[in-house]
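From the thread on structure requests for the teaching lab: each student submitted one protein with a one-line request. Submission from student K.M.:

"Model Butyryl-CoA dehydrogenase from Glycomyces sambucus, tokens only."
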Amino acid sequence: MKLDLEQTEFAAAVRAYAQEQVRPVIGDFYERGEFPIELVRGLGKLGVLGVTLPEEHGGAGMGLFMLGLALEEIARVDASVAVTVEASVTLGAEAIAKYGTAEQQAKWLPNLAAGQGLVAFALTEPGGGTDAGHTDTKARLEDGEWVIDGAKCFITNAGTAMTDLIITTAQTGPGEVTCIAVEPGTPGLQIGPEYSKVGWRASDTRPVYFDDCRVPEANIIGQRGRGFVQFLELLDSGRVAIAALATGSAQGCLDEALAHAKDREAFGRPIAENQSIAFMLADMKLRAHTSRLAWQDAALKAEAGEPFGTDAALAKLHASMAAVDNAREATQIFGGYGFMNETPVARAWRDCKVLEIGEGTNEVQRMLIARSMGL
Ligand SMILES: Cc1cc2nc3c(=O)[nH]c(=O)nc-3n(C[C@H](O)[C@H](O)[C@H](O)COP(=O)(O)OP(=O)(O)OC[C@H]3O[C@@H](n4cnc5c(N)ncnc54)[C@H](O)[C@@H]3O)c2cc1C
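Reply posted by the TA:
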């Protein structure tokens, strides 16, 4: 798709940041399992964290397409940083921008738009994530406060030093799910330790516990009992964003593998001169290209106000599989070096699998696509 000047310049600025600032150092953060806070703040200064937020609160007022361009460029270099942005913007900040009251927006959006804060969205529970409408976490109203009890797991951005807010889902009555914002430091909120993850090791993922955790009644995000509908809407955009991120990973694997195949010699010539390697690279290019078409098509439909849920599911399903396949083939092209943590494709190999799990597993995407055909 041909980009206009503003899109081209924004993508180029994010690409330069990813290549020049993230690429040289991210491997060390990854191995230490450390959250690269200054790199994320740097992206905030570039405007990436505020790109979709309203201009009146300091954002750029752009759409999902622009965010996708940024995520693709970041993930081309590193997925941990990309998912930090993705989770905060599409599921967290957008929840406030879309459903928050004027007071909530004035209170929380400026710092998020300025790229100095992050949001975590806590939906998944230890008892299950796919059955998202079933939530054991409960909240009851008492003396003008929500009193929350329960546990969430695998929550991205829950415990960073720049986390402003955790938006949790909770049952506020029989069959009634509601979103409630909880600020770090609230008594009764406990953030667990960082998980030891296979991939996305430089992103922050933690369990979250609520024990008699009290927040003002005004911290409800959107309408009481509309939480399930709200997060289903947000997840549609989230899936387009994850598809853009996956496209970046697929493209990054191609970038690395192509350069290596032209450079690495076996039997006295570059391995790229073997048709089996060249065909692998051709297939990798095809996957990155079709993934890009899929997320961009879904993003444009979203921005045009057209229904895009099925397109989002198609894009997420296709791009996540493309990323996994490209990571596997890039590792193969790198030979033994591809199995060494020092090479970016080894990181991609560890990172890509979770794309088939987060924001609705690929089984869920297939269910949605099948349902759209009346099945
Ligand atoms: C690194 C990471 C970051 C994450 N970040 C967040 C976050 O920020 N916020 C958040 O809320 N969650 C987050 N998650 C959780 C993620 O969204 C869930 O792991 C995911 O939705 C799957 O839920 P589950 O792990 O409970 O698997 P389960 O629901 O137990 O599913 C297990 C398997 O069964 C399959 N399955 C389940 N039901 C069906 C069915 N009806 N038909 C066919 N197959 C089915 C699933 O597709 C899956 O393959 C994160 C997870 C990871 C790993």
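TA comment: Strands lie at 118-122, 138-142, 145-156, 163-173, 176-182, 189-191, 205-216, 220-221, 265-266, 269-270. The domain at 5-118 is CATH 1.10.540.10 (Butyryl-Coa Dehydrogenase, subunit A; domain 1).
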